[in-house]
C-alpha cells in the first residue's frame, strides 16, 4: 500500500473548504428542501438497510469523501488486503481473516494455500465439536460433556463472548462460561458454578504464554486435578494455540490442539478455531452460517463501488466527524439485548486497530486518528446517557442498530422497542425549537411565569447525527455480516489515515511493565519507580498483608 498523507490530497482540501459552509446547516431544512433525501442517502444490500440521511452531510459531502477514498488508493489497498500482501508491515504479516470464511473455489490463487489451511483447521474443529455434541467424545469417566469454559483474553475472549451472547436464540443444551480477567475472584465465581466431571476447558492463546490466560488456566487445572486427578487433564482440556510444545507440557493431548495463524490478528480471529466455544455452544451448522454471512459482506466490500459500499461509507462518515467536526467519540447503540456485548467487542476491534499516532512512514501524524467507541443497548441507554447526546455540549455521532423481525412472538414488546429505535433518531435530528417547547408547556397548562422559567431547559438543538442500521432478522448469517462490515470499516479508516491498523505495540508495552512490577511485588523492592508508583506499591503491600 502506498503511504499517502490524507491532508495533502486534493479531496481533503476540498473537504476543508466544504466544511466551512456548514455553520448554518440544518437537517430539518435539508429534509424540507429535498423530499428524496432519505432515498439518496440509503444503501441496501439484501437484508441490510443503512440510512445515512440523518447525518450532517450533503451530496457534495459524499462526493468529496468518496473522492478522498479514491485519492488515498483504497481500491489498490483492498486488493492487497484480499490477496495476502504484507499490510501489517511492522510485524511482516498478511492480514487474511477474510480467508477464514472464503470458499476455496472462490479464492484468489495467491491465497489458496491460506484458505486450504483455514479449511483444514475448520474441518478439524467441526469434527471435534460434533463428536462432543453427539457424545462420541466423552469425559474421563465416560459421561457426556454439558459445560464449556473458554479461557482467553482480548480477541480470544471478546469476539467469542459477543457472538455467543448474540446467538442465544440458537444455543444448544451446552452451558458456556468465559474466563478472561486475571482477577482471582473472576475465576472463583466461575468454578463455583461448574461440575469438573462434565466440563470441557478451552484454552485460547496463540503463544500459550499470555499472562492472564496462563494464570487462569493453571489455577483451573489445579482446581480440576484436586477434584478429579491429573490423568484426566488430557480429556478435559483442549487448546487453540500456535505453541504446541507448551500446550503439550500443560497436559493437553497433541490431537486436541487447534491452530492459530500468523496472518490472523487476535481481534479478528473469532472466525477461526478461536471460535471453538461458540461452535460448541451453537453447533457447526450455525457457525458455518456465521462464516457465510461474513463472506457475503466481504464480497460486497470487495466488489461494490465506493459510493454504494456500506463499510466504505460508514468509514467516511467517521472520518468526516473525527477530522472535520473534531468529534472524539462514536456511540454504538444496538436495540436488542442480544448485542449487549457488541460495543465492548468494537472497542477492541476499532480502538486497538486505529488508536495510532504514527503514520506508515513512521512519522507523527498531524491529524486525528481513531475515535472512542462506546455504547449500551437501547432502550436502557435512553434512560442513561441519551441526555448527554440530546442536550450536552459534545457532538456524538451514533449508530443505531435494530432487527425488523423479533426472535420471539412478542409484538407488543417489539413494536415498543422499534418505536423507540425510530423515534430517537428523529428526535436527535429535529430537536425541539423554542416555539415548539413553548406550545408544549402551554398545552400542559403552565402559567406564563412557569413557561418563562422552564423554557430554556425544554429546548433541544437537534442536528445530532445518527446512522440507522436496520437488518431483517438476527441470525448467525446476519451477525457474521454485521461484524465483517465493521472489520472493513476499520480497514478503510486505517488506509485513509495512513496508519497500520493491525499491530498493537501499545498493548505490548503494558504487558512488559506488568511483568517488571510483578517481580517487584514478589521481591518487595520498589526503588526503581517514580514516587507515585512506589507509594501505590507500598500501600498495596501494607493493606494486603
The Rg value, from CA coordinates, equals 26 Å
- CATH homology group of the largest domain: Glucose-6-phosphate isomerase like protein, domain 1
Helical stretch tally: 22
Report the sheet with the most strands, covering strand number, pairing sense and barrel closure. 6 strands, mixed
* Model regions low in confidence, pLDDT < 50 over at least 5 residues: none
Total strand count, please?
11
User: Which range best describes the helical content: under 10%, 10-25%, 25-40%, 40-55%, 55-70% or over 70%?
Assistant: 40-55%
CATH class of the largest domain: Alpha Beta
What is the level-2 CATH architecture name of the largest domain?
Answer: 3-Layer(aba) Sandwich
Strand content: 5-15%
Q: What average pLDDT do the residues reach?
A: 96
Structural class of the helices, strands and pairings? alpha/beta
Largest sheet, order of strands side by side? 1-2-11-10-8-9
Question: Which term fits the overall shape?
Answer: globular
Keywords:
single chain, 545 residues, alpha/beta, Rossmann fold, 3 domains, six-stranded mixed sheet, five-stranded parallel sheet, 11 strands, 49% helix
Amino acid at each position: 500500500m502506498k503511504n499517502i498523507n490524507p491532508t495533502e490530497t486534493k479531496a481533503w482540501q476540498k473537504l476543508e473548504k466544504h466544511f466551512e459552509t456548514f455553520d448554518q446547516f440544518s437537517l430539518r431544512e435539508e429534509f424540507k428542501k429535498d423530499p428524496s433525501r432519505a432515498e439518496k442517502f440509503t444503501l441496501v444490500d439484501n437484508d441490510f438497510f443503512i440510512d445515512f440521511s440523518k447525518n450532517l452531510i450533503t451530496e457534495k459531502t459524499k462526493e468529496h469523501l468518496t473522492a478522498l477514498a479514491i485519492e488515498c488508493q483504497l481500491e489498490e489497498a483492498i486488493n492487497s488486503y484480499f490477496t495476502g500482501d504484507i499490510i501489517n508491515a511492522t510485524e511482516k504479516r498478511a492480514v487474511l481473516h477474510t480467508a477464514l470464511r472464503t470458499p476455496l473455489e472462490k479464492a484468489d490463487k495467491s491465497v489458496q494455500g491460506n484458505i486450504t489451511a483455514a479449511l483444514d483447521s475448520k474441518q478439524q474443529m467441526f469434527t471435534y465439536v460434533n463428536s462432543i455434541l453427539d457424545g462420541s467424545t466423552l469425559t474421563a469417566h465416560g459421561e457426556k460433556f454439558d459445560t464449556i469454559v473458554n479461557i482467553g483474553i482480548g480477541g480470544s475472549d471478546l469476539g467469542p463472548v459477543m457472538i455467543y451472547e448474540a446467538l442465544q436464540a440458537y444455543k444448544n443444551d451446552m452451558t458456556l462460561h468465559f474466563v478472561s480477567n486475571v482477577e482471582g475472584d473472576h475465576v472463583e465465581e466461575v468454578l463455583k458454578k461448574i461440575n469438573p466431571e462434565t466440563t470441557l476447558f478451552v484454552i485460547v492463546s496463540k503463544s500459550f504464554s499470555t499472562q492472564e490466560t496462563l494464570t487462569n488456566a493453571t489455577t483451573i487445572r489445579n482446581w480440576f486435578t484436586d477434584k478429579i486427578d491429573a490423568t484426566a487433564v488430557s480429556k478435559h482440556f483442549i487448546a487453540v494455540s500456535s505453541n504446541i510444545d507448551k500446550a503439550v507440557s500443560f497436559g493437553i493431548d497433541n490431537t486436541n490442539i487447534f491452530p492459530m495463524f500468523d496472518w490472523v490478528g487476535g481481534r479478528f480471529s473469532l472466525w477461526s478455531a478461536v471460535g471453538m466455544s461458540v461452535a460448541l455452544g451453537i453447533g457447526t451448522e450455525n457457525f458455518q452460517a456465521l462464516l457465510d454471512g461474513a463472506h457475503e459482506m466481504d464480497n460486497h466490500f470487495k466488489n461494490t463501488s465506493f459510493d454504494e459500499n456500506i463499510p466504505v461509507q460508514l468509514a467516511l462518515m467517521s472520518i468526516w466527524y473525527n477530522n472535520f467536526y473534531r468529534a472524539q467519540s462514536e456511540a454504538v447503540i444496538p436495540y436488542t439485548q442480544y448485542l449487549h456485548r457488541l460495543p465492548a467487542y468494537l472497542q477492541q476491534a476499532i480502538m486497538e486497530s486505529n488508536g495510532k499516532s504514527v503514520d506508515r512512514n513512521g512519522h507523527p501524524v498531524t491529524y486525528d486518528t481513531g475515535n472512542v467507541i462506546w455504547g449500551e443497548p437501547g432502550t436502557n441507554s435512553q434512560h442513561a446517557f441519551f441526555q448527554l447526546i440530546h442536550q450536552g455540549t459534545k457532538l456524538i455521532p451514533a449508530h443505531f442498530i435494530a432487527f425488523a423481525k423479533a426472535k420471539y412472538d412478542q409484538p407488543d414488546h417489539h413494536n415498543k422497542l422499534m418505536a423507540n429505535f425510530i423515534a430517537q433518531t428523529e428526535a436527535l435530528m429535529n430537536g425541539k425549537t423554542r416555539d415548539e417547547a413553548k406550545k408544549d408547556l402551554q398545552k400542559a397548562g403552565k402559567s406564563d411565569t412557569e413557561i418563562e422559567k422552564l423554557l430554556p431547559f425544554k429546548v433541544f438543538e437537534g442536528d445530532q447525527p445518527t446512522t440507522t442500521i436496520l437488518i431483517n432478522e438476527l441470525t448467525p448469517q446476519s451477525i457474521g455480516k454485521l461484524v465483517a462490515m465493521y472489520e472493513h470499516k476499520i480497514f478503510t479508516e486505517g488506509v485513509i489515515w495512513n496508519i497500520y491498523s493491525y499491530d498493537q505495540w501499545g498493548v505490548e508495552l503494558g504487558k512488559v511493565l506488568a511483568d517488571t512490577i510483578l517481580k517487584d511485588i514478589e521481591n518487595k523492592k520498589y526503588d526503581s519507580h517514580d514516587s507515585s508508583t512506589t507509594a501505590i506499591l507500598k500501600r498495596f503491600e501494607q493493606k494486603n498483608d
